[in-house]
Design brief:
Chain lengths: 156, 83
Amino acid sequence: MIIIEPGSHLRAREASLFERSESPKETKQGNIPKIQGSQAPHLSSPHPPLRSLRRSRYTSRNNQHIQMKHILKIMALVVAISAIWISLLETSVIPRSYTWLLPVYLIMSLGCYGLLMVGVGLMLFPTCPQEAVLLQKDIGEAKEFLKGKGVDVGSD
Amino acid sequence: MELADKAVGCFLSAISLTIFIYYTFWVIILPFVESDHFIHGYFLPQEFAILIPVFAGVALLSILCVFVGYVMLKSKAKKKKQT
């Protein structure tokens, strides 16, 4: 009996599309069994399991350091801005009725900035129509192949 | 499909830019304009500049909490039905 991991040929195709396949999720699989025979001619080789596993552990530890420094930077910025604002209030440069204006304004502008980034990202999203067509063809071939081997593929 | 995405993205960024410009004008520029300028008619009084974002933030947080609670209850009911 041939043990076929569902979607393994698609993952191999993904590996050829995105060269930096360092995500820890993909490397958990270990040895992906090759589909035997000549039924899948356009497959690339399966994942190199051990090398990318070692690399993913190193990058995740590095990631934690980078996240810590980032948080410290953000907190320092917040403390500095609040210090400036409170000093301005205390020395009566700005009347007390304006106390809440700056924090609310900063939060509002942060929300607006996030929304703007989402909108801009949506507008500039890169789609690959040729790859989409090829992917659909791959899915069709895989479904036929599996049906021929007697494996139950889901309904369309 | 890409056109729908682009339209939604354009709409979102337009809304965010409008809100940002209006709010900046309201909070930062308007206090330095004399009281009897015509532009004051287009902006609500200054107390609303704080009330409206705070109100919207509180509403957003409460909607999020309600949604999270609803999802948790639904998953618990599903688990009870399975076992």
